[in-house]
# Entry
Amino acid sequence: MCGITGYIGEKNAAPVLLQALKRMEYRGYDSAGISTIHKDNVTIKKDIGRIDAINEKIELGKAKGKIGVAHTRWATHGGVTKENAHPHLSCKQKIVVVHNGIIENYRQLFKELSDNHEIKSETDSEVISHLIEEEYNKEKDPLKTLQNVSKKLNGSFALVVIFSDKKDEIYGVRKYAPLIVGIGEQENFISSDIVSFIDYTDNVIFLEDKEIVRVTSNSIEIINFDGDKISRDKTHVAWEAADVSKEEFSHHTIKEIHEQSSTVQNALNQDDEEFEGFVKELTSGKNVFITGSGSSFHIALIFRKMLTKFIDSPVQAFLSSESEEYIESMNDNAILIPISQSGETADLLEVIRNVKDKRVTVLSIYNTVGSSLSRVSDFSLNLNCGPEIGVAATKSFTSQLAIVYKIIFKLGNVKNGNEQIIELSNKIKDILSKEKPYKKSLNYLMNQMTCIS
# Structure
């Protein structure tokens, strides 16, 4: 998992991109870099380490130019080296690429390009900048170039690309990896993560799979891989800059633990019609399959155990990455319940793509309005817990659990179900208010050789 972002507008790009990198550091923190264009000249600053340390060393925020891209890396191909850090340049240093995802056929592409291009890194990403250069030399048009390149890349990827001879335009490409356009005032953003630009705008356009976007400071043009123009309305995301700041807490995770007393209650705030439709489908007699990744899979297991007590249909839960045998069992008499924190979980969205033609009913639980998962669902329930920056699932997990209980209480005709969940949230608040004595006990236990309970 990596974080990618791009900016174009009236501000100097580098400080904006540096702030974006800090917002996205939870997505990857072994290396980072920024590239800007100023007077047709490309500047790249990148290195290994945490972002603050890199910035202190090479002053990421001082690159000139009002257009740029940035990347924070979690290494998947190639070691943690400066050469493997993004952004990546083409041979003539006219094209800059940042990439999130995996290019499955990069070795084959490397062989095809190696006679005419010098590839300096061990990554699967650098080959993209050289492939774009190869196509751009023929097409002379960025959109057509990116169409051609996208069809040659196998795997999942989101790209943000800038061309030194198109310094008023920035490009994004999405295939099976999240990419979002942030719409500002005389400035626009492209990013894998809303939190990267939430300080500037909460109006967004979510790109769909196999789409390319051309962004200027005041316009957005979307086409698909076949070149057809796409029209899409913007979405307002009800997040604020305060939602992604640590405020008075030392870590995001500590802050998000303390937010649970309110986020558990927020999870109860569902659209009545959507919630009723979700629950009605569960009683339709169809076979139920629940899936998730990471902590969301544990919610899937809990949900399965509870659901079997209230409906007569078979209920199964599975890891999204281990879906093959379950997909074979799905048909138009099946319900798929994908559970996700972001609504952009790659393995989970792959499951949905594989059952798309089977007329499976999709009932989703997610945390981002307008996300990929929300758009492919027949009915969906929103966690309403705001962005979760900490790597460990805290408020997202308890919010998912609150929604599961809300559904179960409805199926079981429990009249005061919501009140019980609200009472639980008050108990969470009470427990968290006693943090100091807990810390004292933990500090004592931490220094003991053995502990018997």
